[in-house]
Design goal:
The protein is of the alpha+beta class. The chain has one domain. About 25% of the residues lie in helices and about 30% in strands. The protein contains five helices and eight strands; from the N terminus they run H-H-E-E-E-E-H-E-H-E-E-E-H. The relative contact order is 0.18.
């Protein structure tokens, strides 16, 4: 099974927080600094994900799901937590997608209790080959099928999706983006690009 670092590319393309208190997932808080996160006992290891600003692999989170492989916290350019991305361990030899879809459904039900449901996009392939039941994971791997759901809280957007590490191995992915934090990140990115002129 690949290490957590091998999954970072998938994070780029639970202790679920409640909508009423609007906290970040995994026992964290939005728009706090990396230092404040480490004061909770979280171990942060720098990772190069320039597309989201300063980012860290995070372990020893206050809350987490048992099958999480990797969590990446992104702090933009102002050292404020605005994005949390988690990816599961792989469901090996899951060509039918049975295991990953079962777990996806469990997480989906939990999210629906805490957040406002948005779009649900479960599109199997219509291709005669990729559309075969035994090729579900292969179809995800080849972008012939999509499987995701979106949610919102008072300040964040959430996306749950299924991905594939190979034609037979699947995983789930969960991404939280704090809307105000994302806007600040994009403004900071634009300023940095203009400074290059």
């Amino acid at each position: 099974m690949p290490t957590g670092c091998a999954h970072i590319s998938w994070l780029m393309t639970f202790g679920v927080a409640g909508q009423d208190d609007d906290t970040a997932p995994f026992g964290l808080a939005w728009m706090v600094s990396a230092e404040e996160i480490t004061e909770l006992g979280v171990v942060l290891t720098p990772v190069d994900m320039s597309g989201f600003g300063t980012s860290y692999l995070a372990t020893n989170l206050p809350k987490a799901l048992s099958d999480i492989e990797t969590v990446v916290l992104s702090f933009g350019y102002t050292d404020e937590l605005w994005r949390v991305a988690a990816i599961s361990t792989e469901f090996e030899n899951d060509s039918y997608g049975t295991a990953v879809r079962s777990r996806y459904s469990e997480i989906e039900r939990s999210l629906e209790k805490s957040y406002t449901a948005g779009q649900k996009y479960h599109r199997p392939s219509t291709d005669s080959y990729y559309g075969k039941a035994e090729n579900f994971t292969y179809s995800i791997d080849q972008n012939e099928a999509n499987w995701f759901s979106t949610y919102t809280s008072l300040s964040a957007d959430i996306e749950l999706s299924i991905g594939a590490a190979s034609t037979r191995d699947s995983f789930w992915r969960l991404i939280y983006s704090h809307r105000a934090g994302e806007a600040a990140f994009k403004a900071g990115k634009s300023d940095l690009e203009l400074d290059a002129l």
